[in-house]
Design brief:
The protein has 15 helices and 26 strands. The protein is α/β, with parallel strands linked by helices and about 500 residues long. Helix 4 crosses helix 10. The mean pLDDT is about 95.
Length: about 500
C-alpha cells in the first residue's frame, strides 16, 4: 500500500485539505469504481467531468481527491484534496508510481505519424521476436502481452491502463514494448510518466482536425512533436516535407531514414515484385546498414514501413539475416493483407476507410499494371457524408470497377449510404455495381475475377464485426472468403 505522498512524489502540487501521509488502497479515475480508501483522480472528459463526483467520492470514503479546479465538499468530509495543474498529466505519473514504474524496466518504442503506425509496430515486433526478444505491443487493433490479446478502445490507452499493461509485460518477461502513439494520446498526456527509448515519426498529412480533435494542422503537428521531447533517440522520415516542423524543439538524439541522399538509412534500387496471387517490393538498404530486402506487401509505403522497422531494430543489434527473414514472413491483419484465392488474380484486405488512404492504396496498386483494378468498399453510418462523396470520387477515378457495398451502417440505412457514395462516383466515368450485402459483394468480386486483376476489399481491415443499429454482428472478411470458396467449390 502506498501513501498519498509516495504516489504524487514526482508532481508539483498543492495540498489544500487533509494529510499527505494518508494510505491509498487503489487509484481510480472512473467514478463508478470509487471505493473506501482509494485515490480518485478527477478527470474532465469530452462528455463527463470527474470533478462533479467529488462529494460522492468523499461520502463513499475515498482517501484522496486529485483535482485541477475547486470542488464542493461537505465540511466534515475526512478526505485529502491535492490540487495540480492538470489531472490527466498527474494521473500518468500517479499510475506509473502505483504500478512501480514498469516503463523504466522496458525499452519502450513509440511510433507516431498519420499513416504506417500499425504496420510498423507489427513489423518491429516480428523482427525483434525473430531475434529472440520478448516483445509486448500496444496499438489500434489490440494490446499483446505474451499470449494475451486485448482488443483496443483507443490507439493509445489512458495512462492508467497503459501503465497496467507495462506492469503485465514486465511480469510476463517482456524486455521491449512497441506502441502506437496517437496525437490525441500525446495531447491528453497518456504517455507521460516514463521516457521512450526510441520515438519514431513516419509521416504527416492533415487528419484528425475538427471538434474534439485538433483545431488546426499546426496543432496536430505540435502534438505529434511532443513525442520527441520524451524520448532518448528520435528516428524520423526525412522525406516528409513537414519533419523539421514536427521536430521543432526536440530534446532527443536524431537519426533519419528515407529515399533521399541525406538520410542515415536509405532505400535504393526499388523493384516491384509480382508473383501469382502476390505483390511485393524489393530494395537495397544503404547508409548505416547495407543489405538487400524483399517485402511481401506492395508499393512505396511498404518500403517506408520496412525501412522504419529496420532503423529501429538496428538499435537492438538484430542481424541482417533475422531482418530479411522476418520481413518476408511478416503479416499485419487488415493492412494490405493478401488472401490467396487464385493464381490468376490478387485479392487483398485493407483498412483504407477514408479518401486519403484509399487514394494512396489504389495509386500504389496501379503501379503494378493490373488487368483491372477492382475496389470494393462501403462507408460507415453516422459519419461525415463528405467522406462518402470523396471515397466514391477517388474510386471512380482510380479503379476500373468499383463494387459499392455496406460497411458499418450503424443507425443509417445501407442504401442511403450507398446513394451518397454514388454522388461522388457520378463526378467520374468509373464503372460500378452496387451490392448491399457485403458477403454477396465479395462473392461477385471473386467469381468475376479476371487473370491479372487486383481486387481490394477496403474499409473493414482487421475488424471482425459489422455494426448495425447498435449491435455488433460477427463478420470477418477472411471467414467470408473461405465460406464463399467452399460454397462455390473453388478451394
Amino acid at each position: 500500500m502506498f501513501t498519498c505522498k509516495e504516489l504524487i512524489d514526482k508532481l508539483e502540487y498543492e495540498c489544500i485539505r487533509g494529510n499527505l501521509e494518508v494510505p491509498v488502497t487503489e487509484v481510480v479515475y472512473d467514478s463508478r469504481k470509487i471505493e473506501k480508501g482509494c485515490m480518485f483522480v478527477c478527470v474532465q472528459g469530452a462528455n463527463f467531468d470527474g470533478h462533479s463526483k467529488a462529494a460522492e467520492a468523499a461520502e463513499k470514503g475515498a482517501a484522496v481527491l486529485i483535482v485541477e479546479k475547486d470542488v464542493a465538499l461537505p465540511e466534515d468530509a475526512k478526505i485529502t484534496v491535492i490540487r495540480v495543474e492538470s489531472t490527466r498529466y498527474a494521473m500518468a505519473f500517479i499510475a506509473a508510481a502505483y504500478y512501480g514504474h514498469p516503463g523504466d524496466r522496458l525499452k519502450v518504442i513509440g511510433v507516431t505519424g498519420t499513416k504506417g503506425k500499425t504496420t510498423t509496430t507489427y513489423l518491429v515486433k516480428s523482427i525483434l521476436e525473430h531475434a529472440g526478444y520478448k516483445v509486448g505491443l500496444v496499438g489500434t487493433i489490440e494490446a499483446i502481452i505474451g499470449e494475451k490479446h486485448i482488443p483496443a478502445n483507443n490507439t493509445t490507452p489512458e495512462s492508467y491502463v497503459l501503465q497496467e499493461y507495462f506492469k503485465e509485460m514486465v511480469d510476463a518477461g517482456c524486455q521491449i514494448c512497441v506502441m502506437e502513439v496517437s496525437s490525441q494520446g500525446l495531447m491528453l498526456h497518456r504517455t507521460q510518466g516514463f521516457t521512450f527509448e526510441l520515438g519514431i515519426f513516419t509521416n504527416i498529412e492533415p487528419d484528425h482536425i475538427g471538434p474534439n480533435e485538433h483545431e488546426s494542422f499546426e496543432d496536430y503537428m505540435a502534438c505529434k512533436g511532443l513525442l520527441f521531447k520524451q524520448c532518448r533517440t528520435g528516428i524520423v522520415n526525412s522525406d516528409d516535407k513537414h519533419w523539421k516542423e514536427v521536430l521543432k524543439g526536440h530534446t532527443c538524439r536524431l537519426e533519419t531514414f528515407g529515399m533521399g541522399e541525406d538520410a542515415s538509412i536509405q532505400a535504393k534500387n526499388l523493384e516491384l515484385v509480382k508473383k501469382p496471387g502476390e505483390l511485393g517490393v524489393e530494395f537495397d538498404v544503404k547508409g548505416l546498414m547495407d543489405f538487400h530486402v524483399e517485402v511481401t506487401t506492395p508499393g512505396r509505403f511498404s518500403v517506408y514501413n520496412a525501412l522504419t522497422a529496420i532503423a529501429i531494430c538496428r538499435h537492438f543489434d538484430v542481424s541482417q539475416e533475422d531482418i530479411q527473414k522476418a520481413l518476408l514472413q511478416a503479416k499485419v491483419k487488415g493492412r494490405i493483407e493478401m488472401v490467396k484465392v487464385s493464381d490468376d488474380f490478387t485479392l487483398m484486405i485493407d483498412y483504407a476507410h477514408n479518401a486519403m488512404a484509399l487514394e494512396s492504396l489504389l495509386t500504389t496498386l496501379k503501379e503494378y499494371e493490373p488487368n483491372r483494378l477492382v475496389a470494393l468498399f462501403g462507408c460507415g453510418g453516422n459519419r461525415s457524408k463528405l467522406r462518402r462523396y470523396e471515397m466514391g470520387e477517388v474510386s471512380g477515378k482510380l479503379a476500373d470497377l468499383t463494387i459499392i457495398t455496406s460497411d458499418n451502417p450503424r443507425f443509417e440505412e445501407p442504401l442511403d449510404i450507398i446513394a451518397d457514395i454514388k454522388i461522388g462516383m457520378a463526378k467520374t466515368d468509373g464503372a460500378f455495381v452496387e451490392i448491399p450485402d457485403r458477403k454477396e459483394a465479395i462473392r461477385y468480386a471473386i467469381k468475376n475475377g479476371q487473370p491479372g486483376d487486383i481486387i481490394v476489399l477496403a474499409g473493414k481491415g482487421h475488424e471482425d464485426y459489422q455494426e448495425i443499429k447498435g449491435i455488433h454482428y460477427p463478420m470477418d472478411e477472411r471467414v467470408l472468403i473461405q465460406e464463399i470458396l467452399k460454397e462455390e467449390g473453388m478451394n
